[in-house]
Design a protein that fits this description.
Keywords: Signal. By secondary structure, the protein is mainly α. The protein has one domain (26-107). It contains 5 helices and no strands. The chain has helices at residues 2-21, 27-48, 56-74, 76-86, 92-107. The relative contact order is 0.12.
Length: 108
């Protein structure tokens, strides 16, 4: 009987401690968000390199990517703070979704 009580208490403690350890105050989340923003900036700059293409659509996409890279560079810390405050999960596709929404909301 005492052993099962001990296991139940241990399980209850584990269920309360683990989520608290992954709270939004975790500095590794900040680093993760910044890393994702940097990665997105690199990708946008890579796309912006196609601005000299002869195709209209490619030039338009390259121009848009350049604007997005500039926006992300200018707002990197603000976006990181907002994602942390809103508790965005540290999953790349969710962070990218948030960054895209921030850019498209700003450009309209």
């Amino acid at each position: 009987m005492k052993r099962t009580d001990f296991l139940i208490i241990l399980l209850a403690l584990g269920l309360t401690v683990i989520p608290a350890a992954s709270a939004s105050g975790d500095p590794s989340r900040d680093a993760y968000y910044r890393n994702c923003v940097d990665k997105r900036i690199e990708n946008c700059e890579r796309k912006a390199a196609y601005s000299g293409c002869s195709g209209d659509h490619m030039r338009e996409c390259a121009e848009n990517a350049g604007k997005e890279a500039a926006f992300l560079k200018a707002n990197k810390e603000k976006l990181t703070r907002e994602m942390k405050a809103d508790g965005v999960e540290p999953v790349e596709y969710k962070v990218n979704y948030r960054l895209i929404r921030a850019y498209t909301g700003n450009s309209q």
